[in-house]
Every structure is written in C-alpha cells, then in structure tokens.
Amino acid sequence: MEIERKFLIQKEHIPTGFETYPHHQFEQAYIITEPVLRIRKQDSSYILTYKGQGFMKREEVEFPLTEEAYQKLLSKTEGNIITKTRYRIPEKENLTIEFDVFHGLFEGLLLAEVEFPSEEAALAYQPPVWFGKEVTRETTFHNSTLSRMSREAVSKLILSLTEDL
Asked: What is the per-residue pLDDT for 116?
C-alpha cells in the first residue's frame, strides 16, 4: 500500500543545493491508465508497476523487468513518455521528499511527494515552507493523467503554473 501526499513546487522556491542529494533518472510510460499499469526505467533498472485507484492511499505492486521486456512493452504504450529526475531529500521524522524535476514535454513541472507509514502520519504532516499547493487529490497531476494529455493541454498546464505565481 502506498500512502503519499503530493505538492506543486514553484521554481523560485526550490531549495538551494537540491541537486547535491541522491537522485535517479526516470523514463515511464503507461500500458493502461485505469487501473494503472506502468513501465518504468529507473537509471539502469526496469520495473512494471500496478497501481490501484485512489488519491492519498492506494495499492501499488512492482515487478522487475528485463531491458528486453521493457523495450517490448514500451512499443505497446500510448501517449506521452514521461521523463524526470527524482531527488531524494531527507525530511524530518525519517521521511524523504521525492522532488521530481520533469523534462522534455513537461519541462517546468516540479512536484514533491512524501510517502508515509500510515494515514495518520500523512494527515499530521506539516510540509516545509518551500512546498506550494497540495495536489494529492487532483488527478491532473497523476503521471498517468499527464501521459494522456495532448501537447496543447500540457503547454496550457505548464503555462498556468507559471501564471499562478
């Protein structure tokens, strides 16, 4: 079970030195989006992920893939391939902020996610001051939704995020 909250980050509020934290390169695409069946390349590892429905709390199961299987499945996906760098920033109470800097079509989108051991911990969490609007319950910011957006819709979304300053 995955329990997480998600927040938008404005470029001018990114903490200095974030790039010094451990990070991974992601490429991911979706075979289906309801329920979610995602393939992901994380650095040189390959993963098939099933995600159930929900917002803050939802089922998540991962299976390892070979590079060959990943490439074969990648040819079966539709929509946008999402690329991003994920920085792992230590947070209070043994939590970790997963700060995603999107690339390519989604350049300019910045999101932070924090995973929790329980719903109670998630609800009690006080985000740091550099976090922006919480989007945990906004399906627009699910990667599976982003994968289905047209180029025009993505451009409008990115533009709206910079206009909301």
From this structure: 97
From the candidates 30, 46, 70, 87, give the one annotated as an active-site residue. 30
Is 87 catalytic? The answer is: no
- Whichever domain contains 148, its CATH number is 2.40.320.10
Say how many domains are in the chain.
Answer: 1
Residue 137 pLDDT: 95
pLDDT along the chain (165 residues), means of 10: 96 94 98 95 98 91 98 96 98 95 97 97 96 96 96 95 68
**SS (HEC) of the chain:** CEEEEEEECCHHHCCCCHHHCCEEEEEEEEEEECCEEEEEEECCEEEEEEECCCCCEECEEEEEECHHHHHHHHCCCEEEEEEEEEEEEEECCCEEEEEEEECHHHCCCEEEEEECCCHHHHHHCCCCCCCCCECCCCHHHCHHHHHHCCHHHHHHHHHHHHHCC
From first CA to last CA, the distance across the chain in angstroms is 34
pLDDT at residue 162, as a whole number:
78
Q: What is the pLDDT of residue 164?
A: 57
